[in-house]
């Protein structure tokens, strides 16, 4: 297609007529892979005589095509762009980058970024030469623009990946320094000079972000750069040309230069200028920086801050960065001694005013309260906020230099309170009071543990905070709620004070001003957590929930949902009457948040986070009513649309949270409905397509389907769930691109099938064993090997004769058993077992090996029988010891800490969630508590292990994550019953076996037999106790 035809099509893409626009877009798609199409698009972009709108469409099309097609996403994929076209683009794009208007330059810059990331240095070795040549020529802006993109490629790279940076710095930094020098000396510089200096700063920033290039270790070279940065830092920003509009002003070129300069000096100071943080190689650099520059920078920063003290302008980001530098200077003695003489001025005339409510705050509060709330709870805003940096400075000051400053600062705050109390209403310093309350809230951790202040906190709240709940000024009512929330956990000597604060916060949820309502909800969370007597909240719970959802309709914020989760968590089953309503409200809020997030193209809308919060809160509600299965039937229709939609690609951002809800619904519902079964294909599709990272999460509901609705799994043919499961497992286990840790849930699922479908899936035993053995041969991680061997063990327990015949038919029986016995014998340096470390692993192996014992001699010869018998005895003893150790730890844990939830061990063994996590709930209903904890622990227990550490001595047991028929099988009783059956059916074989045993194994066998009888008695007692409990519950 010639240039004119292409320009006409691009013009058509701008048409207001939808059909013309669609035709143009179809034509572009049709010709996009044609030779030279990309080159012609570039020609139109740089053609000055062409209509600007057409050039812009061309630049967007050019950018999108390059982003999608320049570098193939799959390693073996062929590039869709001809090498000749790529070469023409590379040769020409550089020359035009500086010539096109800024709007088009931004698009070409994105293209360059893609090309450089893919091609430099291998396919584009001449790029650096072009940059170096043009830094000495007339095309300085273009060269700097390209060098900025090139240096940014390596900004976060370390070690070997960073090697090209040294060459780039060596070739370009001497020229950059010369250009920088010339620019700094220009009298009355234009805004274009600022743009050039800003690019140099950004190049320098990217080059030193992770590591100082060795060229800068030369004191003379580094000093030359520092002289220029200090010059920029000290010199006033030109007055002429500054925009009057505050938003435009902070983005003005010269203020940007100031910001990047401060940014660079902060980075050098915090990352490379601290002697304590440096490795020996860089220590000399750190000492040189501290000695020659750190103090000078501090002096310049203090001078800059002085501007705002006298009413001058500094951008928020610059103030924030300077205060960060000051905060980092507090712990360093030499820097603190330099700061100290000016500290009072900094603290009381700069820092404190920044903490006070400002004109901008008032304007936002009045004009856009939603934006006021968003900014107040946005973590990203905090990173750039002068107020946050001021609070951090005060916190660091009292933490590191509290002896000199805490009392002094608090006396200042008390003075503010006093002036406020004494002033007439129309003269009260409301904004200063707001700042003083913010300071008190920010210092709560320090004040709560420091006498004499600790003892005075309740009095301080009553005297200075509580009165503001009824302040005529909205921002003080909001701040009172926030401060009260910060101190909700202190010990109130007068319970009425706690009650008063709680009721004031609840009343704040009905305030006319939105920010007050929001701050009150957040404060409520702290009061609910701190509340020992829920009777305070119980009577107002319905109205509280009502107010809560009204607010959720107004504001999308995940912190709001945290408060709801806290309430649900605290009230537990008492939430039952509200569970359906809560789920309906949360589901409605979820859809609203998702719609907002989808409409927000920037992707930074709080709606997305709030949507995740809604789902998490739904999970919390389901957990709280888990012992009331009838409720799940009523809740299901509300949640089903969410689960159906969000288990597709639409739900990638919330997939984990949705799977948790599916897990609860399939575990606690009385039965699994056909509507819930309709989710199975969606999960299988996601797993096959994009969700392999979520396999451990998907495993949980799949296990629930098979174990809790076994008949439907086995009998349904449309869809055929057995075939579907096989297709997925065989695909995953056969995929050579997947790591061992990626596929761990697959063997666990095979075990679920064998354990739950005994005698009903004979036709699946051979295919599952075949893929298991094939994967076992490729497995490297010990944990995966254990899981695959356990599939064999479960198959033996399923049907030993069938399984052994299949293994022999596949010619792998000897190979598999040799590996199994070898793994059973392997130990770590400490002497502990290297494999089958969890209780569950040992139990499965015991049941599998025991199942071999009754086989006739033609299937299991005498020597094999002896080997199996001895290995099983050793394993049973290890299993018994592990159970005893876990019981002992549980007992100790119970004595040390009544909180069952805090007992998780910091263990790095495979899936090591110790049995000591399992406990009795407050009502003593152990079975239900276990059931709930098992589900809650599943996600943890199914997580891939990271522990193949030879030196790890820990061998903790886990929460038995699979609730399956083998839970009721005692391996000791099973072993003894199997041996008794062998003795009865083949006395001679039994006699031959026992006669070959040495004294040790005879003793072990007797010990196991005695333990089995003891277990029989215990099991009977447990059955009687459960029956009694059930009878009591029924009555």
UniProtKB/TrEMBL annotation:
Keywords: Acetylation, Cytoplasm, Nucleus, Protein transport, Transport. One of its GO terms (molecular function) is small GTPase binding. Residues 885-964 are annotated as: Disordered. This is Importin beta-like SAD2. It holds the Pfam family Cse1. SUPFAM superfamilies: ARM repeat. Transmembrane segments: none annotated. One of its GO terms (cellular component) is cytosol. Residues 888-912, 947-964 have a biased composition (Acidic residues). Residues 24-99 form the Importin N-terminal domain. It is found in: Cytoplasm; Nucleus. Belongs to the importin beta family. GO terms for biological process: protein import into nucleus.
């Amino acid at each position: 297609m010639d240039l004119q035809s292409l320009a006409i099509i691009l013009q058509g893409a701008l048409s207001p007529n939808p059909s013309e626009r669609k035709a143009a877009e179809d034509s572009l798609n049709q010709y996009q892979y044609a030779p030279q199409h990309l080159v012609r698009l570039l020609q139109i972009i740089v053609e000055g005589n062409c209509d600007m709108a057409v050039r812009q469409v061309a630049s967007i099309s050019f950018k999108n095509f390059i982003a999608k097609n320049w570098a193939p996403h799959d390693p073996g994929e062929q590039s869709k762009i001809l090498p000749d076209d790529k070469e023409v683009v590379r040769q020409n794009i550089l020359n035009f980058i500086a010539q096109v208007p800024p709007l088009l330059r931004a698009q070409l810059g994105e293209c360059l970024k893609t090309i450089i990331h893919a091609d430099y240095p291998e396919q584009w070795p001449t790029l650096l030469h072009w940059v170096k040549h043009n830094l000495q020529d007339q095309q300085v802006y273009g060269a700097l623009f390209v060098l900025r993109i090139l240096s940014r490629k390596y900004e976060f790279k370390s070690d070997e990946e960073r090697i090209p940076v040294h060459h780039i710095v060596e070739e370009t930094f001497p020229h950059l320094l010369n250009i920088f020098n010339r620019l700094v000396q220009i009298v009355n510089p234009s805004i274009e000079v600022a743009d050039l200096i800003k690019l140099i700063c950004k190049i320098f920033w990217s080059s030193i972000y992770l590591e100082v290039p060795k060229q800068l270790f030369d004191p003379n070279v580094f000093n030359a750069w520092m002289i220029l940065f200090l010059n920029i830092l000290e010199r006033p920003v030109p007055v002429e040309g500054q925009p009057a509009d505050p938003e435009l002003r902070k983005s003005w070129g010269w203020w940007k230069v100031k910001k990047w300069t401060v940014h660079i000096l902060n980075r050098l100071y915090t990352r490379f200028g601290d002697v304590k943080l440096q490795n020996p190689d860089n220590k000399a650099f750190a000492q040189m920086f501290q000695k020659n520059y750190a103090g000078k920078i501090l002096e310049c920063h203090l001078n800059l801050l002085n501007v705002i003290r006298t009413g001058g302008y500094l951008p928020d980001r610059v103030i924030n960065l300077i205060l960060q530098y000051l905060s980092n200077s507090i712990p360093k003695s030499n820097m603190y001694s330099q700061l100290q003489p000016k500290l009072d001025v900094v603290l009381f005339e700069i820092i404190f005013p920044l903490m006070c409510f400002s004109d901008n705050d008032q304007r936002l509060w009045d004009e856009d309260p939603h934006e006021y709330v968003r900014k107040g709870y946005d973590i990203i805003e905090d990173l750039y906020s002068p107020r946050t940096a001021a609070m951090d400075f005060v916190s660091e000051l009292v933490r590191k230099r509290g002896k000199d400053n805490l009392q002094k600062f608090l006396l200042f705050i008390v003075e503010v309170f006093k002036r406020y109390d004494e002033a007439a209403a129309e003269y009260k310093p409301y904004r200063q009071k707001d700042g003083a309350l913010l300071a008190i809230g920010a210092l709560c951790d320090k004040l709560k543990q420091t006498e004499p202040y600790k003892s005075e906190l309740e009095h301080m709240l009553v005297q200075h905070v509580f009165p503001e709940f009824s302040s005529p000024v909205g921002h003080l009512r909001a701040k009172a709620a926030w401060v009260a929330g910060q101190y909700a956990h202190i010990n109130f000597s007068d319970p009425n004070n706690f009650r008063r604060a709680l009721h004031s916060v609840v009343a704040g949820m009905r305030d006319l001003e939105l920010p007050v309502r929001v701050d009150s909800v957040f404060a409520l969370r702290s009061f609910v957590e701190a509340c020992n007597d829920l009777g305070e909240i119980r009577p107002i719970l319905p109205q509280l929930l009502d107010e809560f959802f009204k607010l959720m309709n107004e504001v999308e914020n995940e912190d709001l949902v945290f408060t709801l989760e806290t309430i649900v968590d605290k009230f537990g089953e008492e939430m039952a009457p509200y569970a359906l309503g809560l789920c309906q409200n949360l589901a409605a809020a979820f859809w609203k948040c998702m719609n907002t997030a989808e409409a927000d193209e920037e992707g930074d809308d709080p709606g997305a986070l709030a949507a995740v919060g809604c789902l998490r809160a739904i999970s919390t509600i389901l957990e709280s009513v888990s012992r009331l299965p009838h409720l799940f039937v009523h809740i299901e229709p509300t949640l089903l649309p969410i689960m159906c939609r969000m288990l597709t690609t639409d739900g990638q951002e919330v997939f984990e949270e949705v799977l948790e809800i599916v897990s609860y619904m399939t575990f606690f519902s009385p039965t699994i409905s056909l509507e819930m079964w309709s989710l199975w294909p969606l999960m299988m599709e996601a797993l096959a397509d994009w969700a392999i990272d979520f396999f451990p999460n998907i495993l949980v509901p799949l296990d629930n389907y098979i174990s809790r609705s076994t008949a439907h799994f086995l009998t349904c043919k449309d869809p055929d769930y057995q075939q579907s499961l096989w297709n997925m497992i065989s695909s995953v286990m056969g995929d050579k691109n997947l790591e061992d840790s990626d596929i761990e849930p697959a063997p666990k699922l095979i075990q679920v099938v064998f354990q739950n479908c005994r005698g009903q899936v004979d036709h699946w035993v051979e295919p599952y064993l075949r893929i298991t053995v094939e994967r076992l041969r490729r497995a490297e991680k010990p944990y995966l090997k254990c899981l695959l061997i356990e599939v064999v063990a479960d198959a033996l327990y399923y049907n030993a004769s069938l399984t052994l015949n299949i293994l022999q038919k596949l010619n792998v029986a000897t190979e598999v058993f040799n590996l199994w016995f070898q793994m059973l014998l392997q130990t770590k340096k400490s002497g502990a077992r290297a494999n089958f470390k969890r209780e569950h692993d040992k139990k499965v192996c015991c049941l599998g090996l025991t199942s071999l014992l009754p086989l006739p001699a033609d299937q299991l010869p005498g020597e094999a029988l002896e080997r199996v018998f001895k290995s099983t005895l050793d394993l049973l003893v290890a299993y018994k010891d592990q159970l005893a150790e876990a019981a002992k730890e549980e007992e100790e844990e119970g004595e040390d800490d009544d909180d069952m939830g805090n007992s998780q061990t910091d263990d790095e063994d495979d899936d090591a969630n110790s049995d000591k996590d399992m406990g009795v709930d407050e009502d003593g209903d152990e079975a239900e508590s276990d059931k709930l904890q098992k589900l809650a622990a599943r996600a943890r227990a199914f997580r891939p292990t990271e522990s193949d550490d030879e030196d790890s001595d820990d061998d903790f047991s886990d929460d038995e994550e699979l609730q399956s028929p083998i839970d009721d099988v005692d391996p000791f009783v099973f072993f003894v019953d199997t041996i008794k059956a062998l003795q009865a059916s083949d006395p001679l074989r039994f006699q031959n076996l026992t006669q070959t045993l040495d004294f040790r194994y005879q003793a072990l066998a007797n010990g196991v037999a005695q333990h089995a009888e003891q277990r029989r008695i215990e099991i009977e007692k447990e059955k009687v106790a459960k029956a009694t409990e059930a009878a009591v519950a029924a009555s």
